[in-house]
Amino acid sequence: MPSNRCDAIDLNLTSAHRTFDVLRAEAFVAGLQDAHDRDPDALGPNTRANFEMGAAMSLQDCVKAHGEQSRLFRGFQKQFEHYDLILAPTTPVSPFPWSELYLREVNGVPLDNYYRWLALCYTITLTTNPALSLPCGTDHQGMPFGLQVIGGFRGDAKLLACAEALEQATANDPRLSRPRPDLQKLLASAVDLTHIVTHPPVYGGSRGGKPEVGAM
């Protein structure tokens, strides 16, 4: 196979959403059963929703999800009989304001849960292949763009070596190299932060309707 060959590939990943939903919710039940039993209200709304989704699932749901993950795994590994790497965007959207807890729609299409916008990443989580996000210039809005580079199963070292080679090859190309932040603009932040921030602000808080910044 020529070393400079790059092909578009078509993968059947239609079951990935449901499979990930079930396996993720299953893990929430396994990890949070005691906390939920003690005080369900102590869990955040998203965490509690994931737990309750898992608690309502049947054994059949779980068996099917594990079977689908195995099918996705086998199909994905076949691609690496022909290719060294698979490339994809890291996310389907530009970075959005930090004050938004999650993305609610993509190109005007509503998303059915708070993590669906991460589908390009969690699909690879299902396959268990190593992957990384390589800074690769900016997108159409001038925001940093991440190229998702996916390696073969247990091929972590090879993936890192290939990513380093790609980074070096694009280092002198302003269209593809890692964008450098404007530190002066970052220093002039308009956000009044007085604590270590751990999550976006919660609107409708106790400060006269102003957002409350989450802190440790």
TrEMBL record:
Query: Which keywords does the record carry?
Result: Transferase
Pfam families per UniProt: Amidase
Keyword hit for Amino-acid biosynthesis: no
Tell me where in this chain the Amidase domain is found: 43-160
A GO molecular function annotation here is:
transferase activity
Entry annotated with the keyword Transferase: yes
- Which region is the signal sequence? none
Instruction: Quote the InterPro entries the UniProt record gives.
Output: Amidase (IPR000120), Amidase_dom (IPR023631), AS_sf (IPR036928)
Record-given protein name: Asp-tRNAAsn/Glu-tRNAGln amidotransferase A subunit or related amidase
